[in-house]
């Protein structure tokens, strides 16, 4: 839980070489932005794309988890299946202290997957994925970059705006499908409003975490409880409910 930027890329690249060139351009843009770290581009093919085949300490495991997609079962409402890509070309960035990593890339997926029928477990059937072309769907939680111990609101703004500027470049390349910015900066382009928004999120989540702590004790694990002003935020959040 926390203020997050969700985004999806879609390209009609005709070859792996063309997709690779697009990802290369994205990485070059990332190197020009104030990210704390920009990793090298990596490529996976076949079974190497399956995150479950790598141990938990594998450095690219989170990238491969995000590379997966989910599709709905057309015959059984509410049931979905994960789709592992067949090709992955991507790189990771770390916007800064307290922020999640932001991954960017393009993947290709199988035209169909084989699943077991939920009503008749012994029966298998094929489902069309409808994941054509080269796509990428991901998200980056930026809220906790606002922790005063990480640099506060200024650090949050640097992290959040760096991801947005990356997505501006994705749009310029013509491969942006959508952005859902919970901080609303993508639509408003108002830095002061974004700063107020993250403050409101901090208070709201601190109030929620505070209630859980009161109910179950200090075992509650939440990034907001690490803020040195957590108690103040929780009280402010409760007063506005």
Reconstruct the topology from this structure.
Blueprint: E1 4-11, H1 16-32, E2 37-38, E3 42-45, H2 61-67, E4 69-72, E5 80-83, E6 87-94, E7 102-108, E8 112-116, E9 124-128, E10 134-141, H3 152-172, E11 176-181, H4 185-188, H5 191-216, H6 230-239
Antiparallel strand pairs: 1-10, 1-11, 2-6, 3-6, 4-5, 6-7, 8-9
Helix pairs in contact: 5-6
Walk me through this protein's architecture.
- With 241 residues, the protein is an alpha+beta fold.
- It has two domains: 4-189, no CATH class; 196-239.
- It is built from six helices and eleven strands.
- The strands form four sheets. Strands 2, 3, 6 and 7 form a four-stranded antiparallel β-sheet that branches.
- A hairpin with a 7-residue loop joins strand 6 and strand 7.
């Amino acid at each position: 839980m926390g203020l997050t930027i969700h985004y999806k890329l879609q390209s009609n690249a005709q070859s792996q070489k063309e997709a690779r060139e697009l990802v290369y351009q994205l990485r070059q843009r990332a190197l020009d932005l104030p990210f704390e770290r920009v990793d090298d581009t990596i490529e996976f093919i076949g079974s190497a794309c399956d995150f479950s085949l790598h141990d938990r300490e594998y450095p690219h495991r989170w990238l491969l988890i995000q590379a997966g997609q989910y599709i709905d079962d057309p015959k059984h409402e509410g049931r979905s299946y994960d789709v592992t890509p067949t090709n992955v070309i991507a790189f990771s960035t770390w916007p800064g202290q307290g922020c999640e990593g932001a991954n960017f890339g393009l993947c290709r997926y199988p035209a169909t997957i084989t699943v077991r029928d939920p009503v008749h477990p012994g029966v298998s059937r094929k489902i069309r994925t409808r994941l054509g072309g080269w796509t990428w769907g991901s998200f980056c939680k930026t809220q906790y970059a606002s922790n005063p111990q990480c640099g506060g609101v200024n650090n949050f703004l640097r992290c959040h705006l760096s991801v947005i500027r990356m997505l501006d470049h994705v749009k310029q390349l013509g491969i942006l499908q959508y952005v859902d910015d919970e901080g609303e900066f993508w639509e408003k382009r108002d830095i002061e409003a974004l700063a107020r928004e993250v403050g409101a999120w901090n208070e709201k989540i601190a109030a929620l975490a505070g209630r859980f702590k009161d109910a179950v004790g200090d075992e509650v694990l939440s990034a907001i409880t690490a803020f040195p002003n957590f108690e103040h935020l929780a009280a402010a959040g409760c007063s506005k409910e």
